[in-house]
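User: I'm preparing a small set of examples for a lab meeting where we compare how different chains pack in three dimensions. I only have the primary sequence for this one, and I'd like the structure in token form so I can line it up with the others. Please keep the answer compact; I'll paste it straight into my notes.
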Amino acid sequence: MSERDWAAGPPEERQESVLEPPPPEVEEVPGAAPASESEPESEEGAAPMAAADGESVAATQAPADNGRAPADHAAGEFRVPDGYGVLEGAPQGARRSVGVVVSRFNGRITGKLLEGALAELEDAGVARDAITVVPVPGAFELPLAAMALAKTRRYACIVALGCVIRGDTAHFDFVAGEAASGLQLAALDTGVPVSFGLLTLEDASQAEERLAKGAEAVRTGLEMADVFSQLRAAASA
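Assistant: Understood. Below is the structure token output for the 237-residue chain.
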């Protein structure tokens, strides 16, 4: 017997309810609203009507955007008004050393992220012998490796690369959240920029259009490193 059958009561009670005569028909009064359109008598208002599968009607309604996913960012040009001092970095890698921590888990994807990151470092002028790559087992280990590299004070920035794919359990939420907060903590504790190149995907098919994240993380790290370099120079002038 299904849970819905039991929700209606034990078999003997449901049998009695079936045998009860139907309620008498209500005579319609001219000008009165049908019973289905009348206002609920409860002072606090009626609860949402339950759908057949147990969800509320509000949860089953079509989204207001007609199924179109919202944009993940607001495109447009950023500009600081004239008359203000501006300290802005550029993704320049000449005479800078960079540490790269990368997860081996989901290696088909993280390997592509690493390829993009290394190519971007070369384009930015970072010498190959000034790059240290540290592979780690998974995304959960990225913050610890980033912290260790940053504490050596040998690197202008750290680039963290990884990929977490949602599964059937809450594992995804714990790993992705802890990796993100851990990488931020590594940057805050050491003062060394740690750029976030961790993909958080619903499924592996989403990876292809996000592989540029590796190169983007490099540009972010180098830009922040340049800002910090200018800030130190200005402070000591």
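A couple of notes for your slides: Residues 213-236 form the longest helix (24 residues). Residues 1-20, 32-69 have pLDDT under 50 and may be disordered.

User: Perfect, thanks.
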